[in-house]
Amino acid sequence: MAEGTMHRCAGNGGVMVGVLGVMLLSFGGCASDPPKPAPTVTPDQVRSHADKAFEKLKQEEQNRASDPANPR
Q1: CB-CB contact of 57 with 51 (8 Å)
Q2: Are 70 and 64 a contacting pair, CB within 8 Å?
Q3: pLDDT in single tens digits along all 72 residues of the chain
Q4: Taking the complete model, does pTM exceed 0.85, yes or no?
């Protein structure tokens, strides 16, 4: 009977170790560095990107219009 009691106590101890491990990991997650904020984009950068995209679209449209193998 003593062996069964020892086995049952060891099993409960394993569960306790598991619960404590999960608790420690969850606390560690809260103590980690906060996420870095997203980089800010200035209106000038947005305008520059939009201008580049517009120029690229115009170039593609010109290429499509001058390509006789690709009719509309």
Answers
A1: no
A2: yes
A3: 455 555 555 556 677 777 777 776 666 555 567 788 888 999 999 999 999 999 999 999 999 988 766 655
A4: no
